[in-house]
Amino acid sequence: xxxxxxxxxxxxxxDTVAVDGVSFAVEEGEIFxxxxxxxxxxxxxxxxxxxxxxxxxxxIRVLGLDPSRxxxxxxxxxxxxxxxxxxxxxxxxxxxxxxxxxxxxxGADPERLLADLGxxxxxxxAFEDLSGGQAQRLAIALAxxxxxxxxxxxxxxxxxDPQARRGTWDLIEQVRDTGVTVLLxxxxxxxxxxxxxxxxxxxxxxxxxxxxxxxxxxxxxAPRRVRFRTEEPFDRAVxxxxxxxxxVRTRRSETVVTGTGDLLRAVGTAxxxxxxxxxxxxxxxxxxxxxxxxxxxxxxxxGEAA
Length: 306
Ligand code: ADP
Prior knowledge:
This protein is 33% helix and 29% strand. It is of the alpha/beta class and 306 residues long. It folds into two domains: 4-218, P-loop containing nucleotide triphosphate hydrolases (Rossmann fold), CATH 3.40.50.300; 224-285, Alpha-Beta Plaits. Strands 5-6-7-3-8-9 form a six-stranded mixed beta sheet, with helices on both faces. Strands 11-12-10-13 form a four-stranded antiparallel beta sheet, covered by helices on one side. β1 (2-13) and β2 form a beta hairpin. The two termini are 37 Å apart. The structure holds adenosine-5'-diphosphate. Residues 13, 16, 18, 36, 38-44 line the site of adenosine-5'-diphosphate (ADP).
């Protein structure tokens, strides 16, 4: 049985259609990603799943519960992380966790959770004095303290430095490994590729694709890139004439060849045949960003700056 089922979800705010016909089913024990640029409708989708917003159309079930009707029961099985800025600044880590624990009849041991999330030393620290990474870890702790079967984590690593981000990714995997199903909202392609078992890509409220990151990339037949260096200049026509090659660019000693099919072998064979000595040869695989471009016709421009 799917843990979360979303079927034909639609939601508008006045004239803005925020979500338009999104469907997916999350299986037990997976990290399922809702991926897309800012404003795509991701938060609206999970807010409907959490029962915070009522859909205009479509059907949602979380472990068989209708979020619009069964919010009290839903709260016992679904852990939602609060948006940053929702905790009083002076509240201490230990107090916040005790408060959240008190909402549930059964739940996790707060001390254990703090230790697991590397916050044991921060029990007496006020929320306002936590670093970005610590605040995010507290947000995860609060989402998990009711020992939910499903955890919704929304843009958890935005604003974190790369090291804190990797730490948070490890934590999310640990959460999944304890049997919790994770619904992860992210605009970071790299995060989705690294963490998610499956993703739905949302673009302007509409579903653009659904599948495993690897499967979406493989289905594309997206261009591949081969990079290598040469000591001596060589005639680019050697490569440009190959069936597999669409573009050859050379900058100083580095050449980048874009193409399709078995590009690496085609390039390697041609270079060998013409006596060109190549070093540091690398095949760059396509990414989810390439998938987004292929699916929507627009480049994915939603990095950290957005
Ligand atoms: P995402 O989480 O992908 O960034 P959102 O679900 O937050 O996207 O927003 C989707 C669209 O709906 C955006 O165009 C946003 O401006 C709009 N929107 C979101 N919340 C509201 C709201 N409360 N009132 C009006 N428009 C909203």
